[in-house]
Design goal:
Layout: H1 9-12, H2 14-35, H3 37-45, H4 47-65, H5 67-76, H6 79-87, H7 90-110, H8 116-124, E1 128-132, H9 143-147, E2 149-153, H10 155-173, H11 180-206, H12 217-243, H13 247-269, E3 271-278, E4 282-283, E5 285-297, E6 308-312, H14 313-317, E7 323-324, E8 332-339, E9 342-346, E10 361-365, E11 381-387, E12 394-401, H15 402-406, E13 414-418, E14 421-433, E15 444-454, E16 461-472, E17 477-484, E18 489-491, E19 494-501, E20 507-514, H16 520-547
Antiparallel strand pairs: 1-2, 3-5, 3-20, 4-15, 5-6, 5-14, 7-8, 8-11, 9-10, 11-12, 13-14, 15-16, 16-17, 18-19, 19-20
Length: 548
Protein backbone atom coordinates (compact mmCIF):
# COMPACT_ATOMS: atom_id res chain seq x y z
CA UNK A 1 0.00 0.00 0.00
CA UNK A 2 1.57 3.27 -1.16
CA UNK A 3 2.03 6.13 1.33
CA UNK A 4 0.05 9.32 0.74
CA UNK A 5 2.06 12.08 -0.85
CA UNK A 6 3.17 14.87 1.48
CA UNK A 7 1.25 18.08 0.88
CA UNK A 8 3.22 21.15 -0.14
CA UNK A 9 3.08 24.47 1.73
CA UNK A 10 0.79 25.95 -0.96
CA UNK A 11 -1.59 22.99 -0.59
CA UNK A 12 -1.66 23.16 3.22
CA UNK A 13 -2.25 26.90 3.48
CA UNK A 14 -3.80 27.75 0.11
CA UNK A 15 -6.55 29.99 1.51
CA UNK A 16 -4.19 31.98 3.76
CA UNK A 17 -1.60 32.39 1.00
CA UNK A 18 -4.28 33.56 -1.42
CA UNK A 19 -5.39 36.22 1.09
CA UNK A 20 -1.78 37.37 1.60
CA UNK A 21 -1.21 37.71 -2.16
CA UNK A 22 -4.47 39.66 -2.54
CA UNK A 23 -3.54 41.95 0.37
CA UNK A 24 -0.11 42.59 -1.18
CA UNK A 25 -1.66 43.73 -4.47
CA UNK A 26 -4.14 45.98 -2.64
CA UNK A 27 -1.36 47.73 -0.69
CA UNK A 28 1.36 47.96 -3.38
CA UNK A 29 -0.37 50.44 -5.81
CA UNK A 30 -1.03 52.97 -3.03
CA UNK A 31 2.53 52.68 -1.70
CA UNK A 32 4.00 53.27 -5.17
CA UNK A 33 1.75 56.31 -5.63
CA UNK A 34 3.02 57.73 -2.34
CA UNK A 35 6.68 57.55 -3.46
CA UNK A 36 6.15 58.52 -7.12
CA UNK A 37 4.07 61.51 -8.26
CA UNK A 38 4.34 60.35 -11.88
CA UNK A 39 2.81 56.97 -11.07
CA UNK A 40 0.12 58.66 -8.97
CA UNK A 41 -0.86 60.88 -11.92
CA UNK A 42 -0.90 57.91 -14.31
CA UNK A 43 -3.09 55.74 -12.07
CA UNK A 44 -5.45 58.65 -11.31
CA UNK A 45 -5.87 59.60 -14.99
CA UNK A 46 -6.11 56.00 -16.28
CA UNK A 47 -8.16 54.06 -13.73
CA UNK A 48 -9.40 51.33 -16.08
CA UNK A 49 -5.94 50.61 -17.54
CA UNK A 50 -4.48 50.60 -14.04
CA UNK A 51 -7.10 48.12 -12.86
CA UNK A 52 -6.39 45.76 -15.77
CA UNK A 53 -2.64 45.85 -15.11
CA UNK A 54 -2.89 45.06 -11.40
CA UNK A 55 -5.69 42.52 -11.86
CA UNK A 56 -3.64 40.57 -14.41
CA UNK A 57 -0.57 40.65 -12.15
CA UNK A 58 -2.75 39.38 -9.27
CA UNK A 59 -4.22 36.35 -11.07
CA UNK A 60 -0.89 35.44 -12.73
CA UNK A 61 0.70 35.43 -9.25
CA UNK A 62 -2.10 33.22 -7.93
CA UNK A 63 -1.67 30.74 -10.79
CA UNK A 64 2.14 30.73 -10.36
CA UNK A 65 1.96 29.97 -6.61
CA UNK A 66 -0.88 27.47 -6.81
CA UNK A 67 -0.17 25.82 -10.19
CA UNK A 68 0.41 22.34 -8.68
CA UNK A 69 -2.47 22.43 -6.13
CA UNK A 70 -4.82 23.84 -8.73
CA UNK A 71 -3.93 21.10 -11.18
CA UNK A 72 -4.79 18.39 -8.65
CA UNK A 73 -7.83 20.32 -7.47
CA UNK A 74 -9.42 20.53 -10.91
CA UNK A 75 -8.46 16.97 -11.98
CA UNK A 76 -10.56 15.40 -9.20
CA UNK A 77 -13.91 16.66 -10.46
CA UNK A 78 -15.37 18.57 -13.34
CA UNK A 79 -14.25 22.20 -13.58
CA UNK A 80 -17.66 23.91 -13.02
CA UNK A 81 -18.36 21.88 -9.88
CA UNK A 82 -14.92 22.56 -8.40
CA UNK A 83 -15.33 26.31 -9.01
CA UNK A 84 -18.74 26.27 -7.33
CA UNK A 85 -17.26 24.36 -4.37
CA UNK A 86 -14.56 27.00 -4.03
CA UNK A 87 -17.10 29.85 -3.92
CA UNK A 88 -19.34 27.92 -1.51
CA UNK A 89 -16.59 27.66 1.12
CA UNK A 90 -17.58 28.57 4.69
CA UNK A 91 -14.08 30.04 5.12
CA UNK A 92 -14.92 32.51 2.37
CA UNK A 93 -18.16 33.46 4.16
CA UNK A 94 -16.36 34.16 7.45
CA UNK A 95 -13.59 36.06 5.65
CA UNK A 96 -16.05 38.27 3.77
CA UNK A 97 -17.95 39.06 6.98
CA UNK A 98 -14.65 40.00 8.66
CA UNK A 99 -13.71 42.23 5.71
CA UNK A 100 -17.10 43.95 5.88
CA UNK A 101 -16.55 44.69 9.59
CA UNK A 102 -13.15 46.24 8.77
CA UNK A 103 -14.77 48.34 6.03
CA UNK A 104 -17.40 49.64 8.47
CA UNK A 105 -14.63 50.52 10.96
CA UNK A 106 -12.62 52.37 8.29
CA UNK A 107 -15.72 54.23 7.07
CA UNK A 108 -16.53 55.29 10.64
CA UNK A 109 -13.01 56.69 11.12
CA UNK A 110 -13.21 58.52 7.78
CA UNK A 111 -16.30 60.43 8.94
CA UNK A 112 -14.13 62.49 11.29
CA UNK A 113 -12.83 64.43 8.30
CA UNK A 114 -15.32 63.85 5.49
CA UNK A 115 -19.04 64.19 4.92
CA UNK A 116 -21.28 61.20 5.51
CA UNK A 117 -22.35 60.99 1.85
CA UNK A 118 -18.77 61.27 0.65
CA UNK A 119 -17.88 58.36 2.94
CA UNK A 120 -20.83 56.31 1.63
CA UNK A 121 -19.77 56.89 -1.99
CA UNK A 122 -16.04 56.42 -1.35
CA UNK A 123 -16.15 53.28 0.79
CA UNK A 124 -19.50 51.50 0.46
CA UNK A 125 -21.10 52.29 -2.90
CA UNK A 126 -18.04 51.43 -4.96
CA UNK A 127 -16.08 48.39 -6.15
CA UNK A 128 -12.80 49.30 -4.44
CA UNK A 129 -12.23 52.04 -1.89
CA UNK A 130 -9.10 54.12 -1.50
CA UNK A 131 -8.20 54.26 2.20
CA UNK A 132 -5.84 57.06 3.29
CA UNK A 133 -3.45 55.91 6.02
CA UNK A 134 -3.74 59.37 7.60
CA UNK A 135 -7.24 58.58 8.94
CA UNK A 136 -5.61 56.17 11.43
CA UNK A 137 -3.17 58.84 12.69
CA UNK A 138 -4.38 61.70 14.93
CA UNK A 139 -3.38 65.26 14.07
CA UNK A 140 -2.13 66.72 10.80
CA UNK A 141 -0.21 64.15 8.69
CA UNK A 142 3.09 64.95 6.98
CA UNK A 143 3.37 65.26 3.18
CA UNK A 144 4.48 61.65 2.63
CA UNK A 145 1.95 60.21 5.07
CA UNK A 146 -0.85 62.28 3.52
CA UNK A 147 -0.17 60.63 0.15
CA UNK A 148 0.18 57.09 1.50
CA UNK A 149 -2.90 54.92 0.98
CA UNK A 150 -4.02 51.42 0.15
CA UNK A 151 -6.98 49.92 -1.69
CA UNK A 152 -9.67 47.87 -0.02
CA UNK A 153 -12.70 45.96 -1.33
CA UNK A 154 -15.73 48.26 -1.41
CA UNK A 155 -19.34 47.49 -0.62
CA UNK A 156 -20.18 46.35 -4.16
CA UNK A 157 -17.37 43.77 -4.27
CA UNK A 158 -18.07 42.44 -0.74
CA UNK A 159 -21.83 42.29 -1.37
CA UNK A 160 -21.32 40.64 -4.76
CA UNK A 161 -18.96 38.01 -3.32
CA UNK A 162 -21.38 37.27 -0.46
CA UNK A 163 -24.16 36.84 -3.02
CA UNK A 164 -22.07 34.43 -5.12
CA UNK A 165 -21.04 32.58 -1.95
CA UNK A 166 -24.65 32.17 -0.84
CA UNK A 167 -25.91 31.05 -4.25
CA UNK A 168 -23.02 28.57 -4.63
CA UNK A 169 -23.77 27.04 -1.23
CA UNK A 170 -27.44 26.71 -2.16
CA UNK A 171 -26.63 25.01 -5.46
CA UNK A 172 -24.62 22.33 -3.61
CA UNK A 173 -26.47 21.81 -0.32
CA UNK A 174 -30.12 22.62 -0.99
CA UNK A 175 -31.46 19.94 -3.27
CA UNK A 176 -35.06 19.75 -4.45
CA UNK A 177 -36.48 16.66 -2.70
CA UNK A 178 -39.93 16.58 -4.30
CA UNK A 179 -40.85 14.31 -7.19
CA UNK A 180 -43.74 13.99 -9.62
CA UNK A 181 -46.91 16.02 -8.96
CA UNK A 182 -45.49 17.53 -5.74
CA UNK A 183 -42.53 18.91 -7.65
CA UNK A 184 -44.73 20.44 -10.37
CA UNK A 185 -47.04 21.94 -7.72
CA UNK A 186 -44.01 23.33 -5.89
CA UNK A 187 -42.75 25.06 -9.02
CA UNK A 188 -46.18 26.57 -9.73
CA UNK A 189 -46.78 27.82 -6.16
CA UNK A 190 -43.21 29.20 -5.85
CA UNK A 191 -43.58 31.04 -9.17
CA UNK A 192 -46.90 32.47 -7.96
CA UNK A 193 -45.28 33.68 -4.73
CA UNK A 194 -42.43 35.35 -6.63
CA UNK A 195 -44.94 36.99 -8.99
CA UNK A 196 -46.93 38.39 -6.04
CA UNK A 197 -43.75 39.85 -4.52
CA UNK A 198 -42.88 41.44 -7.87
CA UNK A 199 -46.43 42.79 -8.18
CA UNK A 200 -46.29 44.41 -4.71
CA UNK A 201 -42.95 46.10 -5.52
CA UNK A 202 -44.31 47.27 -8.89
CA UNK A 203 -47.44 48.69 -7.25
CA UNK A 204 -45.25 50.55 -4.77
CA UNK A 205 -43.48 52.26 -7.68
CA UNK A 206 -46.47 53.00 -9.88
CA UNK A 207 -49.30 53.71 -7.43
CA UNK A 208 -49.81 57.48 -7.11
CA UNK A 209 -52.43 57.91 -4.45
CA UNK A 210 -52.82 60.97 -2.21
CA UNK A 211 -53.23 59.63 1.33
CA UNK A 212 -55.35 61.17 4.04
CA UNK A 213 -53.50 63.71 6.16
CA UNK A 214 -54.50 62.05 9.41
CA UNK A 215 -53.30 58.45 9.12
CA UNK A 216 -51.22 57.18 12.03
CA UNK A 217 -47.74 56.23 10.87
CA UNK A 218 -47.88 52.79 12.53
CA UNK A 219 -50.97 51.93 10.46
CA UNK A 220 -49.10 52.70 7.23
CA UNK A 221 -46.13 50.55 8.28
CA UNK A 222 -48.44 47.74 9.41
CA UNK A 223 -50.27 47.85 6.07
CA UNK A 224 -47.00 47.49 4.16
CA UNK A 225 -45.87 44.56 6.29
CA UNK A 226 -49.21 42.78 5.97
CA UNK A 227 -49.27 43.34 2.20
CA UNK A 228 -46.09 41.25 1.95
CA UNK A 229 -47.22 38.56 4.38
CA UNK A 230 -49.67 36.95 1.94
CA UNK A 231 -47.14 36.68 -0.91
CA UNK A 232 -44.49 35.38 1.52
CA UNK A 233 -46.89 32.72 2.81
CA UNK A 234 -47.53 31.54 -0.76
CA UNK A 235 -43.77 31.44 -1.38
CA UNK A 236 -43.26 29.44 1.84
CA UNK A 237 -45.81 26.84 0.74
CA UNK A 238 -44.03 26.49 -2.60
CA UNK A 239 -40.63 26.09 -0.92
CA UNK A 240 -42.12 23.52 1.51
CA UNK A 241 -43.31 21.46 -1.43
CA UNK A 242 -39.85 21.61 -3.03
CA UNK A 243 -37.38 21.64 -0.11
CA UNK A 244 -39.51 20.24 2.74
CA UNK A 245 -37.79 20.85 6.12
CA UNK A 246 -35.27 23.31 4.68
CA UNK A 247 -37.97 25.63 3.31
CA UNK A 248 -37.49 28.18 6.12
CA UNK A 249 -33.74 28.52 5.46
CA UNK A 250 -34.37 28.95 1.72
CA UNK A 251 -36.95 31.69 2.45
CA UNK A 252 -34.59 33.39 4.93
CA UNK A 253 -31.71 33.43 2.46
CA UNK A 254 -34.00 34.72 -0.28
CA UNK A 255 -34.90 37.66 1.99
CA UNK A 256 -31.20 38.45 2.51
CA UNK A 257 -30.55 38.33 -1.25
CA UNK A 258 -33.52 40.64 -1.83
CA UNK A 259 -32.11 43.04 0.77
CA UNK A 260 -28.81 43.21 -1.16
CA UNK A 261 -30.79 43.95 -4.32
CA UNK A 262 -32.69 46.71 -2.48
CA UNK A 263 -29.42 48.42 -1.52
CA UNK A 264 -28.24 48.19 -5.13
CA UNK A 265 -31.47 49.80 -6.37
CA UNK A 266 -31.15 52.55 -3.74
CA UNK A 267 -27.50 53.21 -4.62
CA UNK A 268 -28.18 53.66 -8.34
CA UNK A 269 -31.69 55.09 -8.52
CA UNK A 270 -32.63 56.80 -5.25
CA UNK A 271 -32.49 60.60 -5.04
CA UNK A 272 -33.02 63.00 -2.18
CA UNK A 273 -33.77 66.70 -2.43
CA UNK A 274 -35.66 69.66 -1.06
CA UNK A 275 -38.55 71.80 -2.22
CA UNK A 276 -38.57 75.35 -0.86
CA UNK A 277 -41.90 77.16 -1.27
CA UNK A 278 -42.98 80.60 -0.06
CA UNK A 279 -46.61 81.07 0.97
CA UNK A 280 -48.70 81.75 -2.13
CA UNK A 281 -46.01 80.48 -4.54
CA UNK A 282 -46.04 77.35 -6.71
CA UNK A 283 -43.08 75.08 -7.45
CA UNK A 284 -42.82 72.17 -9.87
CA UNK A 285 -39.27 70.92 -9.24
CA UNK A 286 -37.07 69.42 -6.53
CA UNK A 287 -33.54 70.61 -5.75
CA UNK A 288 -31.42 67.42 -5.65
CA UNK A 289 -29.28 67.76 -2.51
CA UNK A 290 -25.93 66.33 -3.60
CA UNK A 291 -25.88 67.24 -7.27
CA UNK A 292 -25.24 70.63 -8.84
CA UNK A 293 -25.42 72.36 -12.19
CA UNK A 294 -24.52 75.67 -13.77
CA UNK A 295 -27.68 77.31 -15.14
CA UNK A 296 -27.88 80.00 -17.82
CA UNK A 297 -31.45 81.31 -17.70
CA UNK A 298 -33.67 84.09 -19.07
CA UNK A 299 -34.06 86.84 -16.45
CA UNK A 300 -37.72 87.54 -17.29
CA UNK A 301 -38.86 83.95 -16.71
CA UNK A 302 -38.42 83.24 -12.99
CA UNK A 303 -39.80 80.37 -10.95
CA UNK A 304 -41.74 77.53 -12.47
CA UNK A 305 -41.72 78.86 -16.05
CA UNK A 306 -37.98 79.47 -16.13
CA UNK A 307 -36.22 78.32 -19.30
CA UNK A 308 -32.61 77.39 -18.66
CA UNK A 309 -29.60 75.84 -20.31
CA UNK A 310 -27.75 73.72 -17.76
CA UNK A 311 -24.23 72.31 -17.47
CA UNK A 312 -23.97 69.21 -15.24
CA UNK A 313 -21.58 68.89 -12.33
CA UNK A 314 -19.16 66.45 -13.98
CA UNK A 315 -18.22 69.05 -16.61
CA UNK A 316 -17.50 71.53 -13.81
CA UNK A 317 -15.40 69.26 -11.57
CA UNK A 318 -13.70 66.79 -13.94
CA UNK A 319 -12.14 69.27 -16.38
CA UNK A 320 -10.85 72.05 -14.12
CA UNK A 321 -8.50 74.32 -16.07
CA UNK A 322 -9.66 73.16 -19.53
CA UNK A 323 -11.71 75.19 -22.01
CA UNK A 324 -14.90 73.34 -22.92
CA UNK A 325 -17.48 73.70 -25.69
CA UNK A 326 -20.74 71.79 -25.17
CA UNK A 327 -23.66 71.27 -27.52
CA UNK A 328 -26.43 73.78 -26.82
CA UNK A 329 -24.30 76.00 -24.57
CA UNK A 330 -23.90 79.49 -26.14
CA UNK A 331 -20.29 80.05 -25.02
CA UNK A 332 -16.97 78.42 -24.20
CA UNK A 333 -16.16 78.14 -20.51
CA UNK A 334 -13.33 77.14 -18.22
CA UNK A 335 -13.53 76.37 -14.51
CA UNK A 336 -10.41 77.99 -13.07
CA UNK A 337 -10.92 76.68 -9.55
CA UNK A 338 -13.53 74.47 -7.86
CA UNK A 339 -14.26 74.66 -4.13
CA UNK A 340 -16.10 71.63 -2.59
CA UNK A 341 -17.25 73.95 0.21
CA UNK A 342 -16.87 77.72 0.17
CA UNK A 343 -18.07 80.85 1.92
CA UNK A 344 -18.69 84.21 0.24
CA UNK A 345 -16.77 87.10 1.81
CA UNK A 346 -16.33 90.75 0.91
CA UNK A 347 -13.05 92.04 -0.55
CA UNK A 348 -11.12 94.84 1.13
CA UNK A 349 -10.59 96.45 -2.31
CA UNK A 350 -12.36 95.83 -5.61
CA UNK A 351 -10.76 93.37 -8.04
CA UNK A 352 -11.37 94.61 -11.58
CA UNK A 353 -10.21 91.34 -13.14
CA UNK A 354 -13.62 89.89 -12.20
CA UNK A 355 -17.09 90.68 -13.48
CA UNK A 356 -20.28 91.30 -11.48
CA UNK A 357 -20.07 90.08 -7.86
CA UNK A 358 -16.47 88.98 -8.21
CA UNK A 359 -15.32 92.58 -7.99
CA UNK A 360 -16.63 92.98 -4.43
CA UNK A 361 -16.78 89.39 -3.16
CA UNK A 362 -14.42 86.43 -3.01
CA UNK A 363 -14.73 82.71 -2.28
CA UNK A 364 -13.08 81.42 0.89
CA UNK A 365 -12.57 77.63 1.11
CA UNK A 366 -14.20 75.95 4.11
CA UNK A 367 -13.70 72.44 5.48
CA UNK A 368 -16.29 70.10 4.00
CA UNK A 369 -19.31 69.36 6.15
CA UNK A 370 -19.45 65.94 7.80
CA UNK A 371 -23.26 66.02 7.81
CA UNK A 372 -23.68 65.99 11.61
CA UNK A 373 -22.78 69.52 12.68
CA UNK A 374 -24.90 72.66 12.34
CA UNK A 375 -23.86 73.23 8.71
CA UNK A 376 -25.05 69.85 7.48
CA UNK A 377 -24.29 70.26 3.79
CA UNK A 378 -21.32 71.55 1.87
CA UNK A 379 -21.93 74.60 -0.32
CA UNK A 380 -19.62 74.43 -3.37
CA UNK A 381 -18.33 77.36 -5.34
CA UNK A 382 -16.14 78.02 -8.34
CA UNK A 383 -14.23 80.63 -10.30
CA UNK A 384 -15.00 80.40 -14.03
CA UNK A 385 -14.10 82.25 -17.24
CA UNK A 386 -16.31 82.59 -20.32
CA UNK A 387 -15.78 83.59 -23.95
CA UNK A 388 -17.76 83.50 -27.19
CA UNK A 389 -18.10 80.26 -29.14
CA UNK A 390 -15.51 81.30 -31.72
CA UNK A 391 -13.15 82.43 -28.94
CA UNK A 392 -12.83 85.98 -30.27
CA UNK A 393 -14.64 87.77 -27.42
CA UNK A 394 -13.96 87.59 -23.70
CA UNK A 395 -17.25 87.38 -21.73
CA UNK A 396 -15.69 87.80 -18.31
CA UNK A 397 -14.51 86.07 -15.18
CA UNK A 398 -17.05 85.24 -12.44
CA UNK A 399 -17.29 83.77 -8.98
CA UNK A 400 -20.27 81.43 -8.55
CA UNK A 401 -21.43 79.99 -5.25
CA UNK A 402 -24.21 77.64 -4.25
CA UNK A 403 -24.67 79.82 -1.14
CA UNK A 404 -25.89 82.60 -3.45
CA UNK A 405 -28.61 80.28 -4.72
CA UNK A 406 -29.92 78.98 -1.40
CA UNK A 407 -30.05 82.43 0.21
CA UNK A 408 -32.31 83.73 -2.59
CA UNK A 409 -30.76 87.18 -2.20
CA UNK A 410 -31.53 89.48 -5.19
CA UNK A 411 -28.15 91.15 -4.61
CA UNK A 412 -26.47 87.85 -5.56
CA UNK A 413 -27.98 87.90 -9.07
CA UNK A 414 -25.32 87.89 -11.82
CA UNK A 415 -25.77 88.76 -15.49
CA UNK A 416 -23.75 87.72 -18.52
CA UNK A 417 -24.23 89.23 -22.01
CA UNK A 418 -24.24 86.69 -24.84
CA UNK A 419 -24.80 87.88 -28.43
CA UNK A 420 -26.36 91.07 -27.14
CA UNK A 421 -28.80 89.24 -24.83
CA UNK A 422 -28.57 89.40 -21.05
CA UNK A 423 -28.82 86.07 -19.25
CA UNK A 424 -28.37 85.05 -15.63
CA UNK A 425 -25.66 82.76 -14.29
CA UNK A 426 -26.34 80.57 -11.28
CA UNK A 427 -24.62 77.62 -9.59
CA UNK A 428 -27.57 75.72 -8.16
CA UNK A 429 -28.81 72.25 -7.24
CA UNK A 430 -29.75 70.00 -10.12
CA UNK A 431 -33.48 70.29 -10.64
CA UNK A 432 -35.72 67.26 -10.91
CA UNK A 433 -39.09 68.29 -12.33
CA UNK A 434 -42.21 66.53 -11.03
CA UNK A 435 -44.00 64.48 -13.66
CA UNK A 436 -46.60 61.84 -12.95
CA UNK A 437 -46.23 58.62 -14.95
CA UNK A 438 -46.70 59.23 -18.68
CA UNK A 439 -47.41 62.98 -18.27
CA UNK A 440 -45.89 65.81 -20.33
CA UNK A 441 -46.76 68.68 -17.96
CA UNK A 442 -45.14 68.92 -14.51
CA UNK A 443 -47.13 68.71 -11.31
CA UNK A 444 -47.42 72.00 -9.42
CA UNK A 445 -47.27 72.28 -5.63
CA UNK A 446 -48.62 75.52 -4.16
CA UNK A 447 -48.16 76.46 -0.49
CA UNK A 448 -51.42 77.77 0.96
CA UNK A 449 -50.41 78.00 4.61
CA UNK A 450 -47.47 77.01 6.81
CA UNK A 451 -47.83 76.49 10.56
CA UNK A 452 -45.20 76.20 13.27
CA UNK A 453 -46.82 75.58 16.64
CA UNK A 454 -44.89 75.33 19.92
CA UNK A 455 -45.81 74.10 23.37
CA UNK A 456 -47.20 76.87 25.54
CA UNK A 457 -44.46 78.93 27.18
CA UNK A 458 -41.60 77.10 25.39
CA UNK A 459 -39.81 77.11 22.06
CA UNK A 460 -40.18 73.33 21.72
CA UNK A 461 -41.88 72.45 18.45
CA UNK A 462 -45.31 70.92 18.77
CA UNK A 463 -46.23 70.85 15.11
CA UNK A 464 -44.82 71.65 11.67
CA UNK A 465 -47.36 71.48 8.90
CA UNK A 466 -47.79 72.72 5.35
CA UNK A 467 -51.18 72.99 3.69
CA UNK A 468 -50.49 72.64 -0.02
CA UNK A 469 -52.54 72.47 -3.18
CA UNK A 470 -51.48 69.66 -5.52
CA UNK A 471 -52.38 70.22 -9.16
CA UNK A 472 -51.84 67.62 -11.86
CA UNK A 473 -53.61 68.97 -14.95
CA UNK A 474 -53.23 65.85 -17.09
CA UNK A 475 -54.76 63.59 -14.41
CA UNK A 476 -57.34 66.25 -13.49
CA UNK A 477 -56.20 66.32 -9.86
CA UNK A 478 -56.61 69.58 -7.95
CA UNK A 479 -56.62 68.86 -4.26
CA UNK A 480 -55.54 70.31 -0.91
CA UNK A 481 -53.25 68.10 1.20
CA UNK A 482 -51.85 68.69 4.69
CA UNK A 483 -48.23 67.57 5.13
CA UNK A 484 -47.05 67.34 8.74
CA UNK A 485 -44.17 65.78 10.67
CA UNK A 486 -45.54 62.22 10.69
CA UNK A 487 -47.82 62.43 7.67
CA UNK A 488 -45.95 62.74 4.38
CA UNK A 489 -47.43 63.05 0.91
CA UNK A 490 -46.72 60.34 -1.66
CA UNK A 491 -47.09 61.20 -5.32
CA UNK A 492 -45.19 60.84 -8.64
CA UNK A 493 -43.18 58.02 -7.04
CA UNK A 494 -41.82 60.44 -4.42
CA UNK A 495 -42.42 61.01 -0.72
CA UNK A 496 -42.75 64.59 0.54
CA UNK A 497 -41.79 65.06 4.21
CA UNK A 498 -42.06 68.19 6.35
CA UNK A 499 -38.39 69.09 6.94
CA UNK A 500 -38.02 72.72 8.04
CA UNK A 501 -39.13 76.26 7.24
CA UNK A 502 -37.90 79.73 6.27
CA UNK A 503 -36.31 81.71 9.16
CA UNK A 504 -39.19 84.23 9.14
CA UNK A 505 -41.75 81.39 8.78
CA UNK A 506 -42.85 82.83 5.43
CA UNK A 507 -42.42 79.50 3.67
CA UNK A 508 -41.75 75.80 4.05
CA UNK A 509 -38.98 73.36 3.16
CA UNK A 510 -40.11 69.87 2.16
CA UNK A 511 -37.72 66.95 1.94
CA UNK A 512 -38.47 64.92 -1.19
CA UNK A 513 -37.23 61.33 -1.51
CA UNK A 514 -37.49 59.21 -4.64
CA UNK A 515 -36.57 55.54 -4.20
CA UNK A 516 -38.02 52.99 -6.66
CA UNK A 517 -37.10 50.16 -4.30
CA UNK A 518 -38.71 51.64 -1.18
CA UNK A 519 -41.07 48.69 -0.75
CA UNK A 520 -38.36 45.99 -0.92
CA UNK A 521 -36.93 46.43 2.64
CA UNK A 522 -40.44 46.03 4.11
CA UNK A 523 -40.86 42.79 2.16
CA UNK A 524 -37.41 41.61 3.27
CA UNK A 525 -38.35 42.07 6.93
CA UNK A 526 -41.44 39.93 6.41
CA UNK A 527 -39.65 37.27 4.35
CA UNK A 528 -36.73 36.89 6.78
CA UNK A 529 -39.11 36.91 9.75
CA UNK A 530 -41.33 34.20 8.25
CA UNK A 531 -38.29 32.05 7.40
CA UNK A 532 -36.87 32.34 10.92
CA UNK A 533 -40.27 31.70 12.53
CA UNK A 534 -40.84 28.60 10.38
CA UNK A 535 -37.45 27.10 11.27
CA UNK A 536 -37.94 27.93 14.95
CA UNK A 537 -41.36 26.26 15.06
CA UNK A 538 -40.04 23.25 13.16
CA UNK A 539 -37.21 22.82 15.67
CA UNK A 540 -39.60 23.36 18.57
CA UNK A 541 -41.95 20.65 17.29
CA UNK A 542 -39.02 18.22 16.87
CA UNK A 543 -37.83 18.95 20.40
CA UNK A 544 -41.33 18.52 21.85
CA UNK A 545 -41.75 15.15 20.13
CA UNK A 546 -38.43 13.92 21.47
CA UNK A 547 -39.36 15.03 24.98
CA UNK A 548 -42.72 13.28 24.66
Amino acid sequence: MSEPATKSLAEKHSFSLSILITTFFLILPGFLEAVSEGLENFQTNNPFTTFLIWFNLWWVSQVFVFSKPLGGFFRKEKLPKRIIKSFASLKLTVFLLAVSLILVFVGTLAQTGAGIWEVVDTYFRCAFSRVDVSIFVPGEPGEKLARLHFFFPGGFVIGGCLLVNLLSAHSLKFRINAQGARRIAGYIVTALGLFLIYYIVKQGIEKEDIPSAYVDSYKRVLYRLLSGLGSTSVLLVGCWLLFKKRAGIVILHFGIILLLVAELVTAFYATEGTMTIAEGDSVSYVDISRDFELAISEPDLPGKSEKSITISKNYLTDYVGEWQTLEGVPFQFRVVQWFPNADVKGRSTNDETFNALGKEYKLAPVKESTGVEEARVSLPGMIAEFKSLDGSKDLGKYILSHRMYIEKNPAFSQDITIDGKVKKLMLRNRRDYLYSMGATQPVEVKLIDFRHDTYLGTSVAKNFSSLINLEDKEKEIDRKVLISMNNPLRYTGRTFYQQSFAPDESGTVLQVVHNPGWMIPYLCCVIVGVGMLFQFLLTLIKFSRRQA
